[in-house]
Structure formats: C-alpha cells, structure tokens
Amino acid sequence: FYFEATLPFGLGSAPYLYDELGLALDHIFISTLALWIQRYVDDFLKVHKTIQYSIAFAELDALLAQLDTIGIPVARHKTLAALTSAEYCGVVFNTILHNVSISHKKTRKVRSLIFQLAESYKGHGQRMPKSGWLTELVVSNYPRGCATDEWHL
C-alpha cells in the first residue's frame, strides 16, 4: 500500500488545500495573537501601522513562535522584517515613496517574452500585429494553458 505524503504541485486540489490551511492559520493568528495577516496561497504579509520597530519585531516573534508551536515550517531565509520596501506576489510596495510597482524581475520577463515574439515575426518576414499578439505570446509560451503550474511570470 502506497500513498504520497505531499501533494505535487500541478494537481487541481493543491491551491484548495493551501487555501484551507491558510484559512485555519488566519483564524489562529486573529484569535490567539490578534494579528491580521494578508495571505496569498502560502505567502504571508504583515503590515505594521507603527514605525516603532520594537512592536513590529515583537509581533513577528509571536507569529513565528505560533507557527513553530503548531508545526508549520517557515523558510527563515525568506522571512523579512522591518522593511520600508518589500515585494509581495510580484508587486513592490514602497512606504517611503508611497507607491506600488511591478517588480523589475517581472517586467524583464514580460519584455523578454514580447521581444522573443517580435523576433519570431521578424524571422518570418512579418510585422507584429497591433492586436492579438498578447494571446499569441501566452499560447506560444504556455501551450498547456494558463491554468497549469507553469504559468508564472
């Protein structure tokens, strides 16, 4: 008798299971720590309204201790604290400049894909159309569709 201990990504139920776990964690954070956390699948963002670092670090320590208590592993190398600029889900939030922007990594990837598509037209002696090229870009780079786990810019 064999079963997998982890769910491979790419299966349709993986996002659902992460969301169920996330909802449980949301409840734990609110009920035990009175912390409101912004969550997207398995990425968590805690925004502090204070510039008092001692309060921010105390809340982060409490959050990490709670995760340790319930046995949720944390990638410490990905855990950042007391930042004025942070990337979350490919979007950069800057509290000093009071702006939100797309990360440089994401914009470079999109530009590279557009350049590749333009070069493919050029190689066939054609001009890039004024419309429909974005759909072609997606289809040519993700032939199995956008719903697969490979759809990551």
Automatic annotation (TrEMBL):
Signal peptide: none annotated. PROSITE patterns: RT_POL. Residues 1-93 form the Reverse transcriptase domain. SUPFAM superfamilies: DNA/RNA polymerases (SSF56672). It comes from the Eukaryota. This is Reverse transcriptase domain-containing protein.
